[in-house]
Amino acid sequence: MEFDFAAEQPKFLMLMYGLIAFVAVVGGLLLLLDVVPSFFARRREAQLVAASASGAPLPRRRKQGEGAFAFFFLLPTLLLLAIGLVVPAIRTTLLSFMDSGSNDWVGLDNYRWMFAEDSIVRVLINTLIWVLLVPLVATGFGLIYAVLVDKARFEAVAKSLIFLPMAISFVGASIIWKFVYAYRGEGDQIGLLNQIVVSLGGEPKQWLLDSPLNTFLLIVIMVWIQAGFAMVVLSAAIKAIPADIVEAARLDGTTPWQMFWRITMPSIRPALIVVVVTLSIATLKVFDIVRTATNGNYDTNVIATEMYNQAFRYQENGQGSALAVFLFILVIPIVIYQIRNLRKQREG
Questions:
Q1: Rounded CA separation 301/125 (Å)
Q2: CA–CA separation, 78 vs 31, rounded Å?
């Protein structure tokens, strides 16, 4: 099949315009970040030199000018947040109170549908299972890894291997694990799990078809990916424990088990909270794994995949928006808890 450059020319022109716009915007921002602070720094330095030479009192910084200067640099971020977050959030909330065509107001009907439809209740239960298991299990494995590899002989290599799944996308990881769970009738299996079962004298099975077992098997993928993140954060927290505290505990005859529960765990508590909160938010939004592994079939749907199905596959804008708003509401308490926890750490 020959490639017709002339027929594809409009696409190449669009790509070129996009690259030029990207370079112009990013280059302009980088230029401003370099030129504007240098200009104000040189002007401030000139004022200080002039005041020192004339014996006049040093000029004070004007807080009003600093505020305007800060707002100048925050403006692009505020605009992007407004366009990419605030406006869509308001629009989605409004759509959640409208019908599928976004024409008539239906009040809370879409939210009543969420808790009245059996299939959607199953989706909410699946999401709850994900949120309860993934943060706790992934953090637990991350903590075990961090403790075991701390100051080990091949610590760097071990951490690299454990963290490696984080470099794989959720889609790539799901494809890898689909091969692990693969089923091929009788005889030799291409799926690792079924081959192990067959070698032990068992019968192969289609693991991703059985509910609720398939949900737990998908959770394994998420834990496999996120355990490396938990390990890195917790390992850094363990290394930050003051050496004098550890030495004093050892001199007092503390056993390794007592050291873990009385020294390590209290010292890394803030890091543990950060990991659990981060993983909880990431788990609430999980989409790629379910979409790639089962496409939400066989009772494996979660809120994010069902939201996508309702809004884009079934053209039910109101119900899809209601699920999106409900997901946002679930995230809010976690974020508030993390903000309060950070404030307490600063005050402490």
A1: 10
A2: 19
| Owner of token pair 């939400």 | 296
Q: What is the pLDDT of residue 57?
A: 66
Query: pLDDT tens digit string along 202-253?
Result: 888 888 888 889 999 999 999 999 999 999 999 988 888 888 888 888 887 8
According to the model, what pLDDT value does residue 219 have?
Answer: 94
Strand partners, 105: 98
**What is the model's pTM?**
0.78
Number of C-beta neighbours around residue 282 at 10 A? 17
- 246, 250, 254, 256 alpha-carbon torsion, rounded to 10°: 70
For residues 319 and 95, give the distance between their C-alpha atoms in angstroms, rounded to a whole number.
9
Instruction: Using the predicted structure, report yes or no on whether residue 141 has a pLDDT greater than 90.
Output: yes
Tell me the pLDDT tens digit for each residue of 182-211. Answer: 888 776 778 888 888 888 888 888 888 888
C-alpha 257/C-alpha 183 separation (Å) is 43
29, pLDDT greater than 80 = no
3-state helix/strand/coil string of the chain: CCCCCCCCHHHHHHHHHHHHHHHHHHHHHHHHHHHHHHHHHHHHHHHHHHHHHHCCCCCCCCHHHHHHHHHHHHHHHHHHHHHHHHHHHHHHHHHCCECCCCCCECCCHHHHHHHHCHHHHHHHHHHHHHHHHHHHHHHHHHHHHHHHHCCCCCHHHHHHHHHHHHHCCHHHHHHHHHHHCCCCCCCCCCCHHHHHHHHCCCCCCCHHHCCCHHHHHHHHHHHHHHHHHHHHHHHHHHHCCCHHHHHHHHHCCCCHHHHHHHHHHHHCHHHHHHHHHHHHHHHHCCCHHHHHHCCCCCCCCCHHHHHHHHHHHCCCHHHHHHHHHHHHHHHHHHHHHHHHHHHHHHHC
**Which residues pair with residue 98 across a beta bridge?**
105
Single out the residue of 302, 109, 322 nearest to residue 212, CA to CA: 302
First to last CA, the chain: 68
